[in-house]
Amino acid sequence: MAAAIATSQPDDEHIPETDSANFENEGPLPTAPGAEEPSADGQQREVLENEDALKALQFTGDSPAHSRQSDMPDTAKMKRDEFVMDTNNSSIVSKRSVEKLYYANEPEYFRYFVSKLKRRSPLINRGYWLRMKAVEYTVTRFLAEKTAKRKVVVNLGCGHDPLPFLYLGKHPDLCGNTTFVDVDYPKLMQNKLGIIEKTEQLRALLPKLTRTNAETGLLGSSDPYVAIGADLYNLDTLKRILDDHLRIKDASVAILFVAEVSLAYMEKEATQRILEWAASLSDVRFCLLEQHLPDGADHPFAQTMLAHFEKLRTPLHAIGTIADMKQRFADAGWPDAGIDIRSLWDMWSDPTFLNAEQRRALDKVEPFDEWEEFALFASHYFLLLAERKGDQDWSQRPYRTSLAGSTSRLSLAPSFAGSGTESPVPNVPQEQPLQVPELPGSFVPRRFAAVVPATSEISESEAVGLLGGQGSQERLTDCDTYSRTEDLLPMTGPPMRSGVMCHTVTRLGGTSNCLLAGGRTSPDKAIADCWVRLDGMWRKSQSLPEGRYRHCAVPLRLPTEPRPAHTALLFGGKASDGHVLDEWLLWMGEGGWRRVHVVGDAPPARFGAAMITDSREGVSGVLVGGMTSAGRVLTDFWHWSLEADMSLYCRNVTQRATAVLRSNAAILGRFGAQLVRTNRGILMVGGICGGRMLTSQDEILNMKTLRTHPVSGRRPLFVGTSITDVDGGLIVLGGGATCFSFGTYWTRPSILTDSPQASLNCGWHLLSTQKADLSMAPPIDAAERPAAPSHVPVAASATNGHGANELRLSDPVQVPRRSLAQGIDFERYVEDGKPVVFSQGDIGPCTEMWSNQYLTEAIGWDRKVVVHASQKHQMDFQNKNFNYITQDFGAFLEGCERGEQLYLRAVSRNAPADQPTNLADDYPEIAADFELPGELIHVVENLHSSPLRISGPVAMWLHYDVMANVLIQVRGRKRLYLYPPSDISHLGFAPGASSSSLDVFNPADPTTRHALTNTHPYEALLDPGDILFIPPMWVHTAAPTESMSVAVNIFFRSLQPPSYAAGRDVYGNRDLAPYERGRKDLARIVKSFDDLPPDVAGFYLERLGQELLDQARVITRSSQLHTVYAELS
Question: Where is the composition biased (Basic and acidic residues) (predicted)?
């Protein structure tokens, strides 16, 4: 097609030169009698995805004349059968690569079906890993169901996939009373049985394996395993064997059919007969994983995928939309409420399918940065789970809920189900449609490059450069010059010795000067080098503090004297070791890079975000999206401004933006998008979003109106593109993607416009491609020396060899301990207002009794509780990095015990929004097991609430409580950090907020360390039976030191009643009445200066503020809330 140049070979950027260099040699496969021997070199055909297409061919073997089948001549069919036998192992080779890399230290079963290990590229590995995980997830859930019924797992089109052995060998506890059935092309199944018979490790899992003498039909069986060679175009054979041998029609049998990329290649009518037959059984589930078209057949990835299978002469007969496939199951007799279908990309972001630590663990196996390509692949594959039971109450749908369990999952409205696309709700207001006509002439394929401004002001509107990026064979160092004329000198890049991608080039003011910063070669080799072009000449500049890529950078114009300074502001990115950065850096010319201190809310660490200034020469702007270290696309929206004191004020404005977008809000948060300024306002173009794929209807978002510009006509692929405004509109340069194993799609240079004739009228074209003069390059040892990392290990101290420039944090003071056995005056400790740990007190038998089993039996497994489910080790209330989910109490406890990051803070059972919780009222079943020592009677006399707290390995956010409280540790151990009230201004609390986003347990990032340098931390380690007194306004956070923690927290009033605000205070942290009144008074004071000139108003407000701080210091000193006091600077 004219829209792209497609190649059949996948990008092999990360494939080692020898594909098995890092692995041991594996012996040849044992071969069944009469089966074809592998070729002498053991090589397999190099088509990665052919096996999925060719699985369909397994089902077109000899069949009775009355069966429905294609009219293919016998000779052609025999040739295709030979092709099937020759390429069958490709899929298993890819899965073997995944097994070796991603399932280290586990029993290996794919290896017995692969003659030689071949390491696939990271993209192929991760794609197959996700496919394998989705099927494993479904099969495991089925096998774990508690039922007295006999279970049968039927794998349709199994190939050499060792699914039965994965469970019989790795999870025998799940396989009781279960039979695994492999169904595939007869010759292939004969060969598979031959391998099993000759492999002791496989044969040992199948006691009394018996082979028949049949060439088709039932080929072999043992207690847990049945092998069937059958043609699915004729179901009679398969039905008869399953009925006679396994009696699957009996109501005492539960069946799971698994079809992983096998039915899509059959004729739709034949597939429908399979679905109808399966739906006729009494207790059945169907797991289907295959391709679909989320944005129609003209999407570039879909074009490449469909063309690939057409080339193989195995078209995808059954492919359609998710809605199409769900309807096909409904038409076959499956109840609509029992059908759940989701794309693999949707499942990737679902914490009930994969938690954050599981996703992070993948990056430790091999470096990975093909996120856009991975999202495209996963968006074009779905997992469908259908369930049909005669006695099932579909209002409950327990099995379906397990697949759809994420509360953060994007819900796609059904109103467009029949449209053939998964595009957003159609009634969302849209702007004028845009077209993307191609520029005439040739182009150089490259993606993840960077736009370079013209080399002189004269040619500013006549030329633009495109530097570096990933080319068709390697990363590039050269620079394209696109121009409207023919008489310009070509542009070149800096004399870099190796190609670079995912870097930034920032224009410095209205001149041709610009700054190149960072980038990468491979994903584990981030670059710290910076180059500045002044008056057309490139020279080396001060390196970044640490190499990074996929950061974002914008130009700033600082109002300095005697003339403004043009500089660049840089944020985020990813480092060589995989950690994600959250630091802001300002380029200071010869002075190098300066870290910028953030005031207000600080955006969490991210890479791949988009950033732009509000105006061309401004000092404020927006930051949108990006990705976390766990591979989750962020959906937040930030506004920032550089203040006169060179600090950066950041404000989270996500709520305002999402209120406008409403149900379409997911398209705001993107990874790898471009923000570009136009006469229509700022446009956000391309990238990927979480949960679903962007479509032609919503890929371009107008940030001014928050409405989308649909793309009409030809579809480009806005991945890895570079977009800039030129005379004539927006020019789109570079871009493309490796479309899994189907080929590579390259986006041609285009003009983004509302005029279809724009590309012909504007005159832009590729003028030249020029390499830099390497004779001007710095010496290798200077240019390629890696920069030292700027982050500091959490456990390191300033005395352990760190340089003088590292920020030293104060060692925490241990909270004093007092024994209740010796008698105490608790009210005196309350008056002192300092934390203390009380030990050796009697809190009842709860410390011995409150095991998970006891709590489940006493409270009830199915008691519904609302818990926090976090994707990070520390919850953040300000940024809501957790979800509120409702779980069965028993399931919640099991999740905590497994190490899931769950947290229960009990609320009132009858009126959670109106009344504080009380252990005796809300959990009467266990309240008698707990008691408060008599020495703490003051707590009971002034009781506010007594929440039960149970958590897995997750930390509470940093916060303060207005009411005093005691934390009684019942089970497990817990660490707390506490800070005196005078530290509040250093701990990142926004006005009116009682919580902060600082992670004081892991102060590795410079922003957090800077904030903590002037604080005075206390540390408490609680054992079961310990009681910690936390005075009001003491900032604190807590985290279990073991996998699970159970505690009771009792809040009580320690101040005079008039001090507390009137009205509801469910959690005991509503600010005191004087503070609430004071904030209102402050607003009135500020407003009273409205009529004065800003400089006069600012003068007096700063004086009033200083007076207020002085009074605060006097009061704080006299209160003696803590021993060590640091005066506010």
Answer: 43-54, 68-82
DSSP string, 529-591: -EEEEETTEEEEEPPPSS--BS-EEEEEEE--SSS-EEEEEEE--B-TTSPBP--EEEE-GGG
Query: What are the two backbone dihedrals, phi and then psi, of residue 895, each rounded to the nearest 5 degrees?
Result: -65, -45
Residues 555, 509 contacting (CB under 8 angstroms): yes
Residue whose structure tokens are 């996500």: 654
Which is nearest to 796 in space by CA: 781, 785, 807?
807
Q: Tell me what pLDDT residue 198 has.
A: 95
CA angle 166, 169, 175 (to 5 degrees): 85
Extract the tokens encoding 509: 């003011």
Among all chains, which residue has been given the structure tokens 């469910």?
1066
The pLDDT value recorded for residue 456 is 72
**Closest C-alpha among 81, 73, 68, 78 to residue 234:** 68
- Cα gap 916→946, rounded to integer Å: 8
Collapsed DSSP state (helix, strand, coil) of residue 665: helix
CATH of domain 434-773: 2.120.10.80
The Cα–Cα gap between 354 and 582 comes to 24
Helix (H) or strand (E) holding 892: helix 889-897
| Rounded distance between C-alpha atoms, residue 872 and residue 447, angstroms | 32
User: So what's the pLDDT on residue 311?
Assistant: 84
Question: Residue 986 and residue 1003: Cα distance in Å, rounded?
Answer: 14
**Three-class secondary structure assignment of 190-220:** HHHHHHHHHCHHHHCCCCCCEECCCCCEEEE
Where are the strands (E) in 882-942, listed by range?
882-888, 902-905
Among residues 990, 983, 752, which one has the least CA distance to residue 879?
990
Place of tokens 């173009």: 685
Q: How far apart are the first and last CA of the chain?
A: 66
pLDDT recorded at residue 761: 66
| Ranges assigned E (strand) in 412-501 | 450-453, 463-467, 479-483
If we measure between CA atoms, which residue out of 833, 754, 899, 887 comes closest to residue 357? 899
The residues, any chain, with a CB within 8 Å of residue 256's CB and separated by 6 or more, are 138, 139, 142, 151, 152, 153, 154, 284, 285, 286, 287
Closest by Cα among 442, 365, 350 to 404: 350
Could you say which residues of the chain have pLDDT below 70?
Answer: 1-89, 391-428, 457-460, 663, 728, 756-761, 775-808, 1113-1129
Give the global pTM. Answer: 0.67
Alpha-carbon distance of 544 to 572, in angstroms, equals 12
What residue spans define the domains of the chain?
Answer: 101-388, 434-773, 813-1053, 1079-1116
**What is the domain class of 101-388 according to CATH?**
alpha beta
**Per residue in 557-586, pLDDT tens?**
888 777 788 899 999 999 999 999 999 999
Q: What backbone phi and psi angles, to 5 degrees, belong to 35? A: -80, 160
Element (H, E) at 593: strand 593-595
Q: Are 123 and 373 in contact (CB under 8 A)?
A: yes
Three-class SS of 268-301: HHHHHHHHHHHHCCCEEEEEEEEECCCCCCCCHH
Q: What are the pLDDT digits (tens) for 175-196?
A: 999 999 999 989 899 999 999 9
CA 944 to mean position of chain CA atoms: 40
* pLDDT value of position 80: 56
Side-chain half-sphere exposure of 377, counting CA atoms within 13 A: 25
Assign a CATH topology to domain 813-1053. Jelly Rolls (2.60.120)
Contact (Cβ atoms closer than 8 angstroms) between residue 447 and residue 737: yes
Geometric angle at alpha carbon 1093, from 1087 and 1094, rounded to 5°: 70
The tally of CA atoms less than 13 A away on the side-chain side of residue 686 is: 27
Q: Please check whether residue 470 is in contact with residue 13, taking contact to mean a CB–CB distance below 8 angstroms.
A: yes
CA 68 to chain centroid, in Å, comes to 45
